[in-house]
Amino acid sequence: MNGRRTEAVRSYGLILAVAACASLAPLFVGSNVALNAMITALIIALAAQGWNVLGGFGGQFSFGHAAFFGAGAYAVALLQTKFAINPWLAFAMAIAFAGLVGLAIGYLSFRSGLRGSYFALVTLAFAEVFRIVANASPFTGGAAGTLIPLRISPANFQFSDRAVFFDLLLAAIVASLCITQWLKLSRFGAYLIAVRENENAAQALGVDVLDVKLKAITLSAAMTGAAGAFYAQYFLFIDASIAFGPWISVEALLAPIIGGLGTVFGPLFGAVILHFLGEIAKSIGGRIPGLDLALYGALLILVIAFARNGLMGMISARSARTTGRGAA
Amino acid sequence: MSGTTSTTRRSVLKGGLGLAGAVAMPAYLRAQGAPIKVGVLQPLTGALAFDGAQGKLGAEAAIKIINDRGGIKSLGGAKIEIISGDARSTPEGGVAEVERMASEGAVAVLGGFASPICLAATQAAARYDMAYIVDVGVSDQITKRGLKNTFRFAPGFGMVTQQALDNLVKVNDAAGKAAKTVVLVHEDGLFGSGLAKLMQAELPKRGFEILDTIPHPSPARDMTNIALQIRSKNPDLVIPSSYYGEFVLLSRTMQQQKIKPKGIYSVLNGAASNFRFVKEFPEAAENVMDCNHWYDPRKEAAVALRKAVEASGKFFTYNTMLNYSIALLLADAIERAASGDRAKIIAALESSTFADHIMPYGPTKFVEGQNTGAAAVNTQVQGGDIKVIFPDSFANAKPVFPVPA
Fold it and tell me: Fewer beta carbons under 10 A from the terminal one: N or C of chain A?
């Protein structure tokens, strides 16, 4: 018990230290270009944190986290534009709404016993259905999408200084890291990992598998929904293919896989490093359009080839070798 | 900073102040005749790469001409320097590039192509009070948000469709109301769905019966199903609103299946007034009508540009025409503003009465950012060339309708 407590203190301390370092970033990078790039990376990181709860800890690989991302994005946009609800309140409601969407999708698919690739396919299908509905329905603005009017004021969740938005996003990332850290050490997290490792065995030992999975998908969806709400509030425009398009489903699962599945920092590191590689490729690729994307692809292959358990896996393997202890 | 150097706090402060001053000082003050930087934003990679390259071509051609003629004369012959940006066919890609352009000292941005990119990028530019001239993006939301920095030279969706409907009735009446039934085929994105909705509301009022409305995604790889649905309905007229690839597929499939309606009348179509389509698939393209952005064939500069573009082995598309024109429009505004100051350029654009472009519009007149003089043109592919059939004032062909079997 004592050991667990010291580990917890150390882990939360690490989260705070990383956050403190990151929060200083706007002081050093004056340019909005870099700030904009970091904000985009952090939005992906937040979506990926959500995916990691269900996919990394729970072993339920979703190919359709766009459903939750889009639910959050559309909720924050529509609550403001159609119902004139304060953006801050709309933001909180959007997170709750995304969680509910997660619960509903989870209930429909887990109750039917869908596992593995079947679960992956059904989530993909849900995201696609949402995309098509949002694209056709007049309520969501149809194919023209929904535009949040540009009214820069803190009361409207719009800031003239991009650094403020960055700090808010960072606070959300810290919250997601703390939740993940709590998950890792909690009883609920242990159940979730048990389900991932062997669902039948977990059930035999008395774990309420459906309940655990439903809680996990709700939490996961709420986190990814928060990322969607941030996206909508930052770019102030969403349409069906942005909100529910496959791009975000892929980004949300790529970051944890590169960073390290089922680890606290994996999704964040994965997203930041993927984005960083993208920017490097862009600066090398320079004036030839498309070259940077090819370079990015090549870099991605190299990372996957040399870090099979993700970057966090590589780090813990190295520290295990140097200290002679097993990987934590 | 090891502390062993002889740097004093005072000298650091001095240097810092100097640096801050240099950064804060607008580029145009540094040297008379220093180049004026202009952002050219296009989707150069991703799904819209072809269109993006065509747009960039136009802007580059215009800026080269301006520089060859001695640059901006009111600024001591300052040359225009392009900051090229790749929006990667996504709104956030566009925003990232606008941020970069702003940080590199661009005074204004041109282009965007797709409406979602334009919507996001104009807002990003608005944060820096940087003028943004939209090239193609037809969504009416672009100019209806009250952004002072946003200008659209070309007609928006509402203007084009109104004209398309009016001219369709004219063509049909001239042929003794040959067409009574219609099938709508549209891509399910912003422009296709919007257009289909409008057509569904407006066509019955004008005496047409809509037999079916068939949406398809973009990109789509096979149009056989849609072609067969058209065959089973056997309409007099097919009205497709799709991007380049899908329309080419559809028209080729219809040709292979020998589906021959009395006419194909498209609106803002990606292919119907595109020389690439006409050249690569002349039989499928023959007699296809379109209502779209098109150059004024009476203007010498337009004909010269077409020759130059075709001589370089490229296709002369509306993206090229529009971007060429908006680059000239911006240069005129900078010339009149006699300054690289962003706010002054916006003011100059607001009062712009620029007529030296290659579109059939007359002098520009911006009301809430929309050029009210803008108008689309009806074209028809005839004898392997794209002819203008409306407006009458500069039409170089008569409509062929109904198409002889």
Answer: N
Q: In whole angstroms, give the CA distance from residue B346 to residue A215.
A: 53
Probe site for chain B from A132, A133, A150 (most B CB atoms < 10 A): A150
B112 and chain A in contact, CB less than 8 A: no
Pair (B309, B269) in one structural domain: no
Q: Residue B326 is encoded by which pair of tokens?
A: 């908006």
d(CA B133, CA B325): 11
Q: How many domains does chain B contain in total?
A: 2
**Within an 8 Å CB–CB cutoff, is residue B96 touching chain A?**
yes
Same domain, B67 and B184: no
- The answer to whether A37 contacts chain B (CB < 8 Å) is yes
Residue-level pLDDT, tens digit, chain B, 405 residues: 333 444 455 544 444 444 444 444 444 444 447 899 999 999 998 888 889 999 999 999 999 999 999 999 999 999 999 999 999 889 999 999 999 999 999 999 999 999 889 999 999 999 999 999 999 998 888 999 889 999 999 999 889 998 999 999 999 999 999 999 999 999 887 778 888 888 999 999 999 999 999 999 877 889 999 999 999 999 999 999 888 889 999 999 999 999 999 999 999 887 888 999 999 999 999 999 999 999 999 999 999 999 999 999 999 999 999 999 999 999 999 999 999 999 999 999 999 999 999 999 989 999 999 999 999 999 999 999 999 998 888 898 999 999 987
| Spans of chain A, pLDDT less than 70 | 1-2, 30, 285-287, 289, 322-328
Whether the CB of B257 is below 8 Å from some CB of chain A: the reply is no
Instruction: Name residue B292's beta-bridge partners.
Output: B377
Contact (CB, 8 A) for B83 and B126: no
CA A50 to CA A183: how far, in whole Å?
Answer: 12
Q: What gap in Å lies between CA A96 and CA B31, rounded to an integer?
A: 56
List the CATH number of the domain containing B253: 3.40.50.2300
ipTM here: 0.82
Asked if A145 reaches chain B (Cβ–Cβ under 8 Å), the answer is yes
Domain count, chain A: 1
Decide if B151 contacts B366 (C-beta within 8 A). yes
What is each CA distance from B159 to A55, A279, A321, B375, in whole angstroms?
49, 40, 69, 7
How far apart CA A239 and CA A301 sit, in angstroms, is 31
Q: Residues for chain A: how many in total?
A: 328
Task: Look at residue A96 and tell me if it is in a domain.
Answer: yes
A226 three-class SS: helix
Nearest by CB: A145 against B103, B116, B197 = B116
Of the partner residues B45, B120, B194, the one whose CB lies closest to the CB of residue A289: B45
Residue range of the domain that includes A191: 18-246
> Rounded to two decimals, what is the model's pTM?
0.85
- C-alpha closest to that of A53 among A161, A212, A167, A209: A212
- B126 touching A, CB under 8 A? yes
Query: What domain range includes position B219?
Result: 158-292+378-394
- Tell me the HSE value of B201 on the side-chain side, using a 13 A CA sphere: 7
Residue B4 has a pLDDT of 40
Say how many CA atoms lie within 13 Å of B290 toward its Cβ.
Answer: 28
Strands B289-292 and B370-371: unpaired
B78 in a structural domain: yes
CB proximity under 8 Å: B 185-224 to A: 188-194, 197
